[in-house]
Amino acid sequence: MRILVVTTWFPSPGSPAxxxxxxxxxxxxxxxxxxxxxxxxxxxxxxxxxxxxxxxxVQRVSLDPRRPWTALALLRLLLRESSTADVLxxxxxxxxxxxxxxxxxxxxxxxxxxxxxxxxxxxxxxxMWPHFAWLRWVLRLPHAxxxxxxxxxxxxxxxARPQAAVLVPCVVANDRPLQPLPAGEQLRLAxxxxxxxxxxxxxxxxxxxxxxxSGHDVHLSWVGDGPLRGEAEELIDGLKLGGNVxxxxxxxxxxxxxxFEQAHLFFLPTAHENFFTSAAEALSAGRAVxxxxxxxxxxxxxxxxxVLVDNASPESLAAAIVAARGTFAGVxxxxxxxxxxxxxxxxxxxxxxxxxxxxxxxxxxxxxxxRRG
Length: 373
Prior knowledge:
The protein is built from 13 helices and 14 strands.
């Protein structure tokens, strides 16, 4: 089938780390279908561009609310592109808003994929979104809505058509050879996430302080950057943790796996997650995880591959890290990695999308022959 992916969040040469989950979903779909990507750049004034990105044909267009004519141009483009598609597949909530009118006018079979926690927990989002959360009812329009965790699917079903919400997880693409745990006595931890309030980097630093105070030789490498960097650096200096915490900064997505391989455990005291891609990637590298029990990632994080913490205090997190090191010290990395690699491979996820497309096309009565006469 010919699949038109419309998304407001997609990587580009200038922003390669933006929404890698959408790129991976598109590549999983591409294994079985002809995929075209239309990347709508919200609020941008960049000129249109067409390119091949990661093996996918991508057309990039700008939509600027301050220039209403860009909305008309986008509407015409969406109507034209969707007329030759068997399925319209929007990814990211704002994409559903952008594509709603042409989707209804063309009556194209429509699948929407959602990853954003703001759809299910508007109060956790800063700014004006909580006042506009009623827009979530646009999810009643697609013929199927996919979520990346069971928890997300359950919440999406409140807005979607009856029985239209389906679980399709993120892709975790990792075919690197598995590495043994690091040698030596020092406990090495890796975290991947922005230095932002929701990831709670200051709590992570205080947890390292608690471990050090209890006599553990420990080091945390935090991969990622953000507005809390200055405050994090001050806390590291104040707690005299210069030799125990490294703020790595932003690295290319493919380079993240090296930090997992250099660690014994993945640790990130996040406030809330949906799929929690970085935790799944750590597991795919054969590293157990220590994380708070705060999201749908409990679909795959279990006692077999991690420790879930109910009380996210420095002391409780430190105790969980110590327990995890003892529990998983003798576990082969392959025991942790192989189930994750199989479950979240492009092939497995692509097959799930294939099932969704088949159901949507059958339900709408649309086939390539009937739609084109």
